[in-house]
């Protein structure tokens, strides 16, 4: 449990599956995020998740792309949370196209600085959860973490969580009867370090520059 004198934390996750939640197929990315939430719960972290495909997120690099754009509401929830989780499947060795769109929309943070030159995500912690049954987990983490760091998020150590099944086979993460021991350990480690870092930053935010 979190220290008695420390407040609880909030996590917000975006599932960048290509499928809408109305699809009959279950989402491995959803399961990975929910497993991470479970690992976070003993640290006083509550989590919420949205599937980006359920929302009309317009292409672009601004925080609001005009009428009908669903991004501003999702952006607000990212900034309300202490910990942001980007969850993506691997397609052709890369993060999904929806994950790429999320990162493109976050690009707006580069110019949305406060009077101390701090971007909106400064002081927020970010994790990346990746699932797939082909190679590409490390490359996906590299792409996502670099983008998240560029727009101001803080990345804890050992925070790249992934499961990759046997290539060209039909078993997905959501099909497993139980979480593999190595992954369960990685989830606990990422949850612990994210909680510790988020609490530090909540109390003592990064300084700005003049």
TrEMBL record:
Taxonomic lineage from the root: Bacteria, Pseudomonadati, Pseudomonadota, Alphaproteobacteria, Rhodobacterales
Spans traversing the lipid bilayer: none
Protein name per its UniProtKB record: Flavodoxin family protein
Species in which this protein is naturally found: Paracoccus rhizosphaerae
Annotated ranges, domain NADPH-dependent FMN reductase-like: 10-166
Pfam families: FMN_red
SUPFAM superfamilies recorded: Flavoproteins
InterPro entries given in the database record: Flavoprotein-like_sf, FMN_Rdtase-like_dom
